[in-house]
């Protein structure tokens, strides 16, 4: 069984859209959003996947979410059936943190043998052995200090070293201030991550904030030979579920 996020109570967040971030931006894909996360980013744009009633971890909007309305469980076969119905050649698995459910995710993907699969992960968890051969691309997004997570939780050295050595992994860093780049550069140096494998993405959930930050972020990308990732889905649809 897989634990999924919802778009509305009782409706799993399985949908077709354009990939809004990273190297596959603009591609027509299917999405499935899984629930639960082992980190707690204070600016997380999907807190309904983890910030449930009774969870005292901080989030900037101070809102907690009813678990029953925002989380549901479906069989792997049913999830695969719903994904296949969109007829897309590519699937993006996002969250929450999808690798928390690696074994069940592998069972689901076994029903979709012809799909190219991307997994979006915070980089703290190793892929399950059954899952790893089924993944074509890992979008690894280590969380910097401004996320509010401690480095021992968010930046485990063994895991980052393994991701850096994984040719299927790209790195996507959320940037709120120009000074955040110093942390990215330090991580890139420590783990020998080529700058060309790094995407920088402005933190924000509205077009004005994103446009303002992308102006100076673009210059940093040019200076350091890194890639700029817009948030295309925010520009197209706003900060909404199922997009």
Automatic annotation (TrEMBL):
Catalytic reaction list: 6-carboxy-5,6,7,8-tetrahydropterin + H(+) = 7-carboxy-7-carbaguanine + NH4(+)
Biological processes annotated in GO: tRNA queuosine(34) biosynthetic process
TM region(s), chain numbering: none
EC top class named in words: lyase
Enzyme Commission code: 4.3.99.3
Binding sites annotated in the UniProt record for [4Fe-4S] cluster: 37, 41, 44
Domain Radical SAM core: 24-239
Keyword Magnesium belongs to the record: yes
Cofactor note: Binds 1 [4Fe-4S] cluster. The cluster is coordinated with 3 cysteines and an exchangeable S-adenosyl-L-methionine.
Stored Pfam families: Radical_SAM
Residues given in the record as Mg(2+) binding sites: 46
Residues in coiled coil: none
Alphabetically ordered keywords of this record: 4Fe-4S, Iron, Iron-sulfur, Lyase, Magnesium, Metal-binding, Queuosine biosynthesis, S-adenosyl-L-methionine
GO molecular function terms attached to this record: 4 iron, 4 sulfur cluster binding; carbon-nitrogen lyase activity; magnesium ion binding; S-adenosyl-L-methionine binding
InterPro entries assigned to the protein according to its UniProt record, in alphabetical order: 7-CO-7-deazaguanine_synth-like (IPR024924), Aldolase_TIM (IPR013785), rSAM (IPR007197), rSAM_sf (IPR058240)
Record pathway: Purine metabolism; 7-cyano-7-deazaguanine biosynthesis
Cofactor names: Mg(2+); [4Fe-4S] cluster; S-adenosyl-L-methionine
Residue numbers binding S-adenosyl-L-methionine: 43-45, 96, 141-143
Residues given in the record as substrate binding sites: 18-20, 33, 94
Subunit text: Homodimer.
Function: Catalyzes the complex heterocyclic radical-mediated conversion of 6-carboxy-5,6,7,8-tetrahydropterin (CPH4) to 7-carboxy-7-deazaguanine (CDG), a step common to the biosynthetic pathways of all 7-deazapurine-containing compounds.
Family membership: Belongs to the radical SAM superfamily. 7-carboxy-7-deazaguanine synthase family.
Name this protein carries in UniProt: 7-carboxy-7-deazaguanine synthase
Gene field: queE
């Amino acid at each position: 069984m897989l634990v999924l996020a919802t778009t509305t109570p009782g409706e799993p967040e399985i949908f077709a859209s354009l990939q809004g971030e990273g190297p596959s931006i603009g591609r027509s894909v299917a999405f499935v959003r899984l629930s639960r996360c082992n980190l707690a980013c204070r600016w997380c744009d999907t807190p309904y996947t983890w910030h449930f009633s009774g969870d005292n971890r901080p989030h900037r909007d101070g809102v907690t979410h009813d678990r029953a309305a925002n989380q549901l469980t479906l069989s792997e076969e049913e999830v695969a059936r719903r994904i296949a119905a969109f007829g897309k050649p590519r699937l993006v698995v996002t969250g929450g943190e999808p690798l928390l459910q690696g074994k069940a995710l592998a069972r689901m993907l076994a029903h979709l043998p012809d799909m190219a699969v991307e997994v979006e992960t915070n980089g703290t968890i190793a892929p399950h052995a059954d899952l790893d051969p089924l993944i074509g691309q890992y979008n690894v997004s280590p969380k910097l200090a401004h996320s509010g997570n401690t480095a021992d939780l968010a930046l485990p050295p063994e895991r980052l070293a393994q991701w850096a050595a994984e040719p299927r992994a790209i790195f996507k860093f959320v940037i709120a201030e120009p000074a955040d780049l110093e942390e990215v550069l330090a991580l890139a140096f420590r783990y020998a991550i080529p700058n060309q494998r790094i995407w920088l993405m402005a933190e924000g959930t509205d077009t004005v904030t994103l446009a303002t930050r992308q102006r100076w972020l673009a210059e940093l990308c040019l200076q350091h030979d890194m890639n700029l990732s817009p948030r295309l889905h925010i520009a197209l649809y706003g900060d909404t579920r199922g997009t």
